[in-house]
Amino acid sequence: MELVLTWSSNLKHMESPLIRDTSAQDVNLARPPRNWHKSPKFWGSVISLVVLVFLAYPSIKKLQGAALTVPLERVRLGTVKWGDLIRDVSAQCKIIAAVKPVLFSPSPGRVSLKVHAGDAVQEGTPIAQIFSPELVSQHQQENSILESLRSEVRRQEIETRTERLTLQQNLDLAEVTLAAARREMRRAELAFEKGIIAAQDHEKAIDDLDRAELQHQHLEDANTLRMERLDLELEIRQHDLSRQQFLVNDLLRKVQDLAITSPVTGVVGNIEVNEMDFVSQYQVLLSVVDLSVYEVEAEVPESHAEDLALGIDAEIKIGSETFAGSLTSVSPEVQNGKVKCQIRFVGESPPSLRQNQRVSVRILLESKHQVLIVNRGNFMQATAGRFAYLVNGGVATKTEIEVGSTSVSQIEIIDGLEEGDVIVISGAGYFEDQDQVLLVN
What we know:
Strand content: 25-35%
Radius of gyration: 57 Å
Helix content: 25-40%
Order of helices and strands: HHEEEEEEEHHEEEEEEEEHEEEEEE
Strand order of the largest sheet: 1-21-17-16-20-2
Shape: elongated
Structural class: alpha+beta
Largest sheet: 6 strands, mixed
């Protein structure tokens, strides 16, 4: 310390009279006190701060109530409105031939093919021949039996007429005998009354008349029974002939069916046998495809199977054109979670269709008019349709809802929302099931 003081003292004595200090340049900065709360700038700042707090208050409240913040571009919104809802189901389908009969072997035998796969055929064109010597031989044998039965029926008819004639002759003779007995009885009565004949002769005439009447009556009854028996025998022979005729006709049909013809005009499809193969009865031979009539084969998800019914309208989209269709058949079984159904064009089929061509089909299951609807989104899968996030003032609030019918693009709202409400229809997975979410730009 002593050194410092000494140095300072020496420095003071060493000052040159030529160097002045800065005391002349010093300025007193102290100012007299002022009433700052009366300043206009102060009150302007206060008013601006209040306005700013007032404007920011809703946002502050939103931040306080929202547990999560999600950018608005991550979600998609939909507006609830009144409109028509068409409940439908869409499916990718293919064009198939409506008529494609499969031909079977009518009888066992060897097959001879007259066409090849892809050949064009006309209705009635021979396409195959089955050789069955056993069937042809059986037809000939049964036909011979038929001719024999015809001869037997003719013989029975002749015997019946002959027997009828004999019975009629016997009956006529009995009537003559009865008439003679009656005349003899009248003569005997006259003679007995005049006393010409004895009582014994009169009684004998009475007995002869009774005998003639009994014989005539018995013969008449017997003739009736004999004629009924003759008619029955002839009827039995005719029944045998008819039964044999049916058998021969059936065998003739089978023989004629050995020549297989095309049932429709089209092209030959798949051929399942080779030339001169031995085939059994009802074995598949080949198929014929009618290319003049087409229909659509669709595979509908199993969940919509109960809603499918014959006659339901459908829309078939081929390229940029849409055609009307009608559901004509539904498969009774489910394969790989899908149900197959056939849809036929209403009216004429569109031109230039091809087998197995891919098309889109929309099956119209139900139509509702003037109901609350909103565009469909993945919020249905995320919430199972139990609630939705209602957007109001930039805040999405979890709201319970009740949905009704659904279509490919729209959903019916039954309860929980009103016309004009805006809800989040996609992107709700970002909300983490929170009650309130703030949507920010």
